[in-house]
Design a protein that fits this description.
With 493 residues, the protein is mostly beta strands. The protein has a single domain (26-489), classed as Methylamine Dehydrogenase, Chain H, CATH 2.130.10. The protein has helices spanning 16-21, 94-102, 118-122, 257-260, and strands at 31-33, 36-39, 47-54, 58-59, 62-63, 72-80, 83-90, 135-139, 142-146, 153-155, 162-165, 183-185, 196-203, 207-216, 221-230, 239-240, 244-249, 252-254, 270-272, 278-284, 293-297, 301-312, 315-323, 347-354, 359-366, 370-374, 386-391, 403-408, 414-418, 423-424, 429-432, 442-450, 455-462, 471-474, 485-489. Strands 2, 30, 31, 32, 33 and 34 form a six-stranded antiparallel sheet that branches. A five-stranded antiparallel sheet has the order 1-7-6-3-35, with no helix packed on it. A four-stranded antiparallel sheet has the order 8-9-10-11, with no helix packed on it. The longest helix has 9 residues, at 94-102. It starts with 15 loop residues before the first helix and ends with a strand. It comes from Cyanobacterium stanieri (strain ATCC 29140 / PCC 7202).
Length: 493
Amino acid sequence: MVQTEKKPVETKSYSLEDWRKGYESQPQEKEYWIEDIEGEIPADLRGTLYRNGPGLLEVYGTPLNHPFDGDGMICSFKFTDEGCYFRNSYVKTKEYLEEKQAQKMLYRGVFGSQKPGGILGNIFDIKVKNIANTNVIKLGKKLLALWEAALPYYLDPETLETKKIDNLDGILKDSDVFSAHPRLDPHSPFNNGKPSLINFGIKPGLSSTINIYEFDLEGNLLQQYSHITPGFCFIHDFLITPNYIIFFQNPTSYNPLPFVLGMKGAGECLDFKENEPTKIILIPRHAPHKNVITLEANAGFIFHHANAFEKDEKTLIIDSVCYAKLSQINPDKSYKEVNFDELAPGQLFRFKLDLNNQKVEKELLNQRCVEFPFINPENVGRDYRYLFIGATHNSTKNAPLQGLLKFDLHTNEEQLYSFAPKGFAGEPVFVPKSNATAEDDAWILDLIYDSENHRSDLVIFDGKDISQPVATLHLKQHIPYGLHGSWAGIMNN
């Protein structure tokens, strides 16, 4: 009888009870100097980290069906010679203030949160609120809270006071949208080699219009152009290289009728076509932007990309987090009752685009479940080596993110710091050191939910070696799981 060697069974690194606590609302807005610190804040870490994410997971007694429907709450961590000053504040959108005045839920959520009253309470009400909860960036003197289905909101970068909904000095029309995932080109060919910010907005339909905007860092428009692609577009993220804007058009369709009839949320009307290919759309950045290239690949579903670069004139490399299928929203089941074992994990894949032969090759780079990739901003759109990303504790299977992974794309070496079993991680933010000479000369900032103490910690790592934190800043309260953030250095703070 032949005996086969048994592989060790990886035990769960978390409990659902601990994980759920990170989805409790945080109604309090506070500001204070962070005094409970382990280690020392690096002397050259000076500037402000901004974070955005849903802060309220119910609306005056009505629980949300999905956390992505929660009102946006901005957090700022300002590093000075005196220490780190923390603030958190809700984006006071028109809809947020209306519901506060009424003390009840007035708006449906895109991801399935319905007003009380069942179908009769929701039928034909297609108004959704601008929750401004996905990202936050500094553009000129404005701090912009972004949500990709509406215009941005302008906040004071210092106090986080909400100023107004913002059309970017008339560049955007009232019906336009401005994505929550802009890209920063460190050396834009359209800004004399200086940095520029690129973003997009989508008008979906039977054919979808992709509007592209490029600004200098003061918010002045450098160029604007559009592309129409057949089919419905569900695109959260995109990529840039010096010559291309790149979109992965996920294979999805949309039937709005159940939403209009009050039966489902808009997000629940989305259907992922598992057996259909993804369209990869390459739009030239140089005018007249006409020679658009469209390729196809079996890419699964993609929320986030790590980076893209041009290996040569006719070869592009793209690294993305791919899911075998999109987990459909279940209106009959709470998002807090998720069974991670049943969900497809997000994994890091590399796509090689051969523009000569119109072919795409796909390669798995790492089998670990990962999300929220971040790289050195100097390498955006260019060849790079190091990737920092939220990761699971165990090397296989789906699970909540509980660690920070540093992945070397040249050697495939990985370094993992895990906060398991009680800590839960999100998106790391890369802050170059003031005297950086190497690609990983950086401070990596990670906001961690500590379920044991029901509070959040801002953890600082040295990008050269993430085996131990450099400093851990303990907040006085917890911050619900967030989405995206950005860094404003001392020069542009």
